Amino acid sequence: MSTSQVKNSGGKIVPRSDLRVGTTREVRNVKGVRDAKEYKRIATWNVRTLLQCGKLENLKIEMDKMKVDILGISEMRWPKSGDFWSGDYRIIYTGASEKKPGTGGVGFIMNKTLGKKVKGYIQYDDRIILVKFQTKPKDTIVVQVYMPTSNSNDEEVEEVYENIDKIIKNVKGEENLVVMGDWNAVVGEEKSQ
Predict the structure, then answer these.
(1) Between the CA of residue 179 and those of 26, 36, 101, 102, 113, what are the distances in Å?
(2) pTM for the model
(3) Going by C-beta distance under 8 Å and a sequence separation of 6 or more, which residues neighbour residue 35?
(4) How far is residue 60 from each of residues 18, 49, 70, 97, 113, measured CA to CA in Å?
(5) 62 SS3 class
(6) Which of 23, 24, 22, 26 minimizes the C-alpha distance to 137?
(7) Which runs of consecutive H residues, i.e. helices, occur in 33-111?
């Protein structure tokens, strides 16, 4: 028997960095070991772009250093959507916006173990991607979101919220759900002009 629970919701690792890391714990009964615990580290990072040479390799090095199993990425800016392996890492991503080429795009980089446990994925648009993992005792769905900035119009923001709401409604009650990403939140009081 195993259960999954959130250890903490994460926090910034380094000042001036958008890398956030949290962990989930999977408890399994392993032969000869009672209540063995296996933690999965899940993180999200707005990378600003992956169009620069060597940036993907840097991400893989950082994942290895931080022992991150699943990394949700915002602002990849790659032109088309795809799914491929790079060494021991699987990358699943959406393409950048067709309306604004070279902007947006979300995706996941996962280690080899979890890359093999992907049951499916849905690339909604350049702002939302969903990946379903085979985990025990229940499947886990991870959603990466890149919200529009405060400069965007209200219709665009509402459309993203509606899509997130649809995703949540389609998740079965017994599945684990993680929704994460860059929410582009503005904190504080609005300045009057």
Answers:
(1) 18, 27, 25, 24, 21
(2) 0.79
(3) 27, 29
(4) 16, 15, 11, 25, 14
(5) helix
(6) 26
(7) 55-66
Pick out the chain residues at pLDDT < 50. 1-9, 12, 14-16, 27, 29-30, 32-36
| Cα 189 versus chain centre, distance | 29
Q: How many CA atoms lie within 13 A of 139 on its CB side?
A: 16
| Torsion, CA 169, CA 171, CA 173, CA 178, rounded to 10 | -110
Query: How many CB atoms within 10 Å of residue 159?
Result: 14
For residues 101-112, one letter each, b for 16 or more C-beta atoms within 10 angstroms of the residue's C-beta and e for the rest, the string is: eeebbbbbbbbe
- Looking only at the bridges linking them, the beta strands covering 70-74 and 33-46 are parallel
Can you point out the beta strands (E) in 62-137? Answer: 70-74, 82-86, 89-93, 106-111, 118-123, 128-133
Residue 121, token pair as written in the block: 């994925």
Q: Is 112 helix (H, G, I), strand (E, B) or coil?
A: helix
- What pLDDT, on the 0 to 100 scale, is given for residue 97? 77
* Residue count of the chain: 193
Place of tokens 């509606």: 162
Q: How far from chain centre, in Å, is Cα 52? A: 21
Contact 43, 22 (CB under 8 A): yes
- Cα 69 to Cα 41: distance, rounded to the nearest angstrom: 5
Q: How far is CA 93 from CA 11, 62, 77, 163, 188, in A?
A: 24, 19, 10, 17, 33
